[in-house]
Amino acid sequence: MTGWRRGVVWAVAIAAGLACVGLALLLWLKDLGTAGTVAGLAADTVTLVMTVFAVRALVLQSGQTTSQAIASGAGSVATGGGIGRAVTGNNNQVSGGVPTPPPGSPVPGGRAEASGTRSVSAGGSVGEAITGDGNST
């Protein structure tokens, strides 16, 4: 947890503790009307603060992209989505159109990582992957 977040957590904990002590003191003095008003105000304030935090989290989450692809070896292919056809290697002969993903294939998942030579990786589906040398399809 970062420094400022830890500070916010401590500030909220201290404020909550003080509020509990204050409400207990009001109840002990038998001032139930004031205690009820203060408790209602505290509940409304907490609800408002939590709503702001929830909206902020949703906005930050929607701004993030789920797609991240990393390819490192010679001829490696990586994508966060789907791949229709990936051809790596030398002297490959490919004919025909690019295959389409099968129906009912999963939605692209995002992160993909291909590391070795001529590796193929996808966050979604792969229609066709041809690796090696001298292949013909």
- Strand order, sheet with most strands: 1-4
Overall pLDDT, averaged?
75
Uncertain segments are none
Count all strands and give the number.
6
Radius of gyration: 29 Å
What oligomeric state is this? single chain
Order of helices and strands: HHEEEEEE
Q: What sort of overall outline do the alpha carbons produce when their principal axes are compared?
A: rod-shaped
What proportion strand?
15-25%
Short description:
With 137 residues, this protein is an alpha/beta fold.
Key terms:
two-stranded parallel ribbon, 137 residues, rod-shaped
Give the helices and strands, then pairings.
Layout: H1 3-28, H2 32-63, E1 69-71, E2 77-79, E3 83-87, E4 112-114, E5 120-122, E6 126-130
Report what the structure shows.
It is a single chain. It is rod-shaped, with a radius of gyration of 29 Å. The strands form three sheets. The chain has a two-stranded parallel sheet. A two-stranded parallel ribbon has the order 2-5. It has helices at residues 3-28, 32-63, and strands spanning 69-71, 77-79, 83-87, 112-114, 120-122, 126-130. 42% of the residues lie in helices and 16% in strands.
